[in-house]
Amino acid sequence: MYVAYRRREVPLVITGLLGFFLLLSYVVINPSIAKVETEFSSWVSLLTAFSVMVGAVASVRKHAFRVYRRTKHQWYWSIYILAILFTFIVAGSIQSISGPVCKWMYDYMLTPLTGATYSMLVFYIFYALYKSMRLRSVDVGIFLVALLTMVVRNTPILIYLYPDAAIFGDWILGTLYVGVSRGVGFGAGIAAIILGIRVLTGREIGYLRPVEE
Amino acid sequence: MLEILRNIPMLVTSVIIFAIVMYYMIIRVKAGTLPYIRKLPALDVIKDAVGRAVEMGGAVMMVPGMGSIARASVAAYTYAAISCLSFVAKECAEKKVKLIVPTMRANVLPLVQDAVYASYLEAGVAEDYNIDNIRYLADEQFAMTTACLGILHREGVVTNILIGKFGAEALILGQAGNDVGCLQIGGGSLGVVPYFIATTDYVLIGEEVLALGAYLSKEPEQIATIAATDIIRIALIVILLVGILLKSYGFDLGPLLLG
User: Fold this and answer.
1) Chain B partners of A206 at a C-beta cutoff of 8 Å?
2) How many CA atoms lie within 13 A of A174 on its CB side?
3) Predicted model pTM
4) Residue B9 touches chain A, beta carbons under 8 Å
């Protein structure tokens, strides 16, 4: 069935018009335009909040089906997720989001788990370092020299033994790294603007669902 | 004239100039002059990576970054990742491979769903599209990371594509993918490139990520936009060099141009 509001052109036109309007608000200094721009920014916050609800509904749907179908090795974890989700929603609705139940869940459940996951990085960094030290090609050789220099530069006992490593390490950080990162950032900035123009002019449409006739 | 230029912010000026160059290149392409674009091995390998999933009977996981589309600084990477996702989804649809797409931002979820569905539709297998494989896992960085680790270990992922805006989790995801023997393609902003170099098989750096959509589409008009990026970059490098030379010899154009 043909549905006009589901045409791809509708979101493209909205994106283009709003994008160019916000761009215009940079150039034309006018209180009315500034007010409308602030209003649009509030809409973004509102739409983002709404999209969290869409995400929550999608998540509940998925886990409810898992429980209903008794998906092997997963359904009991889905019950756990749903229980946590609904406890948070109910407690937050009754006591507010900063109430004791929500705060307890945040401080004693989410924060320690987040810290635990973050701490895994230490092991992964060490493992990545070990892997990077395997000399396979000239490129990796250059990488290895820079890496070992930085290891020496940042280790107090080694820098005491090899003080020249600090000069070389500072040169890598201050000259090579800064130069390369500025260059890459420069290129990425140009590419981001071109991508923005493509989105605003409707040339980047991969994210839009086509109309099924 | 200079007074007007001084009142227009640099961003708007650059958008106008870039748009003019972009449309000039598109007109040239329409007239039949195809620009040369260097090959990006990380993108050319995507087809092989999906083929590997077919041979091994495994799944493909693509994480389109942890970025939102509501923040200007990261939205470009997210849009670029979704463009790449469309291509990956089409390959998976044609080869009947399971594609899992975890998302961290709720506002990215509908875009990802539509991009994947559009690809399945384009491949003529819309009935194979499974909305349960497009997953909104969490809006918190490490909760999302942990959930992705679970998927990597439980669901037989053999190809792991990490393209978009990532932070510290890039190393955890890349290393976990490495542990389970995935073929991995990584791409993101400069901060995470070292992580990807250490853990993934193919890496996209900086602007390569942002040119994804145009590169993968293979459409002459889209390729023209990449050529426009190159022209602008060369022009800006020349301007920078001229500026350095002029400044070195005592000519300062800054006050004249910027006020």
Assistant:
1) 82-83, 85-86, 115, 118, 213
2) 6
3) 0.84
4) yes
